[in-house]
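sry for the spam today, last one i promise. struct tokens for design, 246 residues
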């Protein structure tokens, strides 16, 4: 995990989970550029190199990694100059699935114990930002590569349901800022629609930033999508309204 403390920290921490279908990690365009942007706004950043299938890791390794990251940040909040009540997560593609899982399962002690997580601090992030996220593991619109990388070739229906985030949103889910494009050629837009519907059904404070074009994998690079929509400026306003950024 790569930590960067800005010159004038505002007390907020953000754990960044790049995408890569749970197979590899898009560290630069979704990790480092995102960290740089958050640093300019005073947030202390942590780019998480969670374990992936490329290195022969599958569930529960990824889930253990994000929980340990949240635990580490909260346990060392004083050292980093962080407010432990302002620890958020942002994830892209499969990383979006991972951060949504963290929000949904952060208070489920029994589920966490199953994967060997025991801690004295809260593992529930204070806000969740899934960007063009993998959401469902169901056969109809699920992203097959992510499902295979996470759960193996032949997951049971029980496993598919447990990791379909639209089926797992609790009433304790933290606020969510969801980003997706209608023309996403990698992860079907309907993934985000299902997640948003579940968040609304549980009355979770959430914003769904939808864009007609932009595709997949834009991260926070200064690309055509960013130049047209400046999607991070809308994100900044949301974080500012919730008092996570100054």
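last one done:
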């Amino acid at each position: 995990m790569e930590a960067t403390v800005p010159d004038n920290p505002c007390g907020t921490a953000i754990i960044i989970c790049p995408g890569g279908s749970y197979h590899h990690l898009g560290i630069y365009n979704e990790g480092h550029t995102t960290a740089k942007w958050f640093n300019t706004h005073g947030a202390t950043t942590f780019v998480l190199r969670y374990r992936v299938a490329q290195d022969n890791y599958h569930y529960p390794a990824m889930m253990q990694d994000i929980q340990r990251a949240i635990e580490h940040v909260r346990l060392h909040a004083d050292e980093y100059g962080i407010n432990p009540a302002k620890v958020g997560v942002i994830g892209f593609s499969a990383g979006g699935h991972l951060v949504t899982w963290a929000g949904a399962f952060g208070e489920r002690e029994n589920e966490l114990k199953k994967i060997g997580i025991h801690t004295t601090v809260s593992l529930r992030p204070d806000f969740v930002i899934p960007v063009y996220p993998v959401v469902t593991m169901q056969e109809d619109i699920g992203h097959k590569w992510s499902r295979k990388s996470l759960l193996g070739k032949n997951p049971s229906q029980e496993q598919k349901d447990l990791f379909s985030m639209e089926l797992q949103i609790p009433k304790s889910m933290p606020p969510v800022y969801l980003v997706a494009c209608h023309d996403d050629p990698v992860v079907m837009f309907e993934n985000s629609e299902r997640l948003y519907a579940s968040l609304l059904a549980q009355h979770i404070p959430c914003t769904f930033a939808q864009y007609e074009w932009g595709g997949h994998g834009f991260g926070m690079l200064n690309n055509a999508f960013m130049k047209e929509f400046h999607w991070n400026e809308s994100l900044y306003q949301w974080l500012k309204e919730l008092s996570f950024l100054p």
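The chain has a mean pLDDT of 97. ok im logging off now
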